[in-house]
Amino acid sequence: MHVLAKYFLVSILLAAVVMSMPVQVQAQSAECGKKRGKSAAALDELTWKKLNDIYEDIGAELYDTAFEKLLRIYPRAYDDYQKAIMAQALAQIEWARSNYDSSLQYFETAVELDALPDLAHFSLMYQIAQLYYMKDRYDEALDKLELWMCKVPPEKITAEAYVLKASIFAQKKDWKNVIASIETAISMSDAPKEGWYQLKLASHFELEQFPKAAETLEVMIQSWPGKKDYWVQLSQIYYKLKKNDEALSIMALAYRRNMLENQLDIIYLSNLYANNDVPFKAAGVLQKGIEDGFVESNKKHWTAVADGWYAAEEMEKALFAYEKAGQASDDGEIDLRRAYILVDMERWSEASEAVAAALEKGGFNERKTGDAYVIQGMSEFNLGNYDKASTAWGRASKYPRAKNSAQQWMNHMREERARKSS
């Protein structure tokens, strides 16, 4: 019994290798309706001893030795049962030696003899379907699997068999039948595997069944809450379905669970906050991402942070972010934005420094250059630096769009100086 246990263990392990493979559905064979009910026959003592010795070799993984011994006795098999037993053993050895073409031939011989007991016969039918799959012969794999499914007692059909079927359909890009098969497998199992749901999800994506994909991901998140990709995918699907609140909620929860640690995810969450009119959160998430080293510290990202703080009316934070953006910028665009804010806040000294930095870098168009000189003059004027203000407005007057504004300020300065001197 110990030797036989080894033999059957070899069979079980070999079958398990392909337990997660694919299958397909076609017209059932005429054989499908035929039921069988065979039990094991007796072997003569000499044959039993020889096979027992061979099974010892198989259990010890001495496959070459076992194969040579089997080939010597295989031609002398005196009935279909003996021949089927030996063909089955030869097939298992060839499978173990990765000689799949030869293995398939012996398996099919064992099945065609129709002499083995039901358990062994049906097991071989299933392995034949698996072998056809391994050989990329998907139509034949499907035919064999379908035949097995209609011949074997219904209670013997496992969830894994439907996974195999779903996998074959996936290879044939028959996504509707993938879903039907994998959903059957899931319904049959108390603990469906993650890979099964991944196959189901991929099929929904292929068919652009996004609501169904969302439902599948909701289940996957419940079962595997630590997989960040599922949270992101679900949020993106919600966003695609224009369910912006749900998209944001999922990503925000993932963020609170400290699952978002790459640039794309953090920027996506920040954008979701911005699109949902929550600029305070949009800026905060992005700035923390930069400071934590997950998001690159550059002009673009710091500008987005600054714009968010500005929209949230958090001016000090906006100024800090604009300054960071300006430091990372080769042109004066960002420094000029900061100068405008500082002018609005009447922080003239800082405004003067910001606009000076902007003008030194340059890189903006004629209109903005003229405007920059105007606000430089305003800053210097309010600091009491009239000569510097006059020089700045004089330069602004050279730009058509800024000329009127510059002249008005110069007139205002003359009036103010006259008033003070009177």
Using brief descriptors, characterize the structure shown.
Serine Threonine Protein Phosphatase 5, Tetratricopeptide repeat, rod-shaped, 422 residues, 22 helices, mainly alpha
Describe this structure in words.
This protein has 422 residues and is an all-alpha fold. Among the domains are: 157 residues, Tetratricopeptide repeat domain (Serine Threonine Protein Phosphatase 5, Tetratricopeptide repeat, Alpha Horseshoe), CATH 1.25.40; 77 residues, Serine Threonine Protein Phosphatase 5, Tetratricopeptide repeat. 74% of the residues lie in helices and 0% in strands. The chain contains 22 helices and no strands. The protein is rod-shaped. The protein starts with a helix and ends with a helix. The relative contact order is 0.05.
pLDDT averaged over residues = 89
* H-E string: HHHHHHHHHHHHHHHHHHHHHH
Measured by DSSP, the beta-strand proportion falls in under 5%
The CATH architecture of one domain: Alpha Horseshoe
CATH class of one domain: Mainly Alpha
Number of strands: 0
Shape: rod-shaped
What is the CA–CA distance across the termini? 122 Å
Q: Which sheet architecture does the biggest sheet show?
A: none
Number of helices: 22
Helical/strand content category: mainly alpha
CATH superfamily of one domain: Tetratricopeptide repeat domain
CATH fold-level topology of one domain: Serine Threonine Protein Phosphatase 5, Tetratricopeptide repeat
- Radius of gyration from the alpha-carbon trace, in angstroms: 38 Å
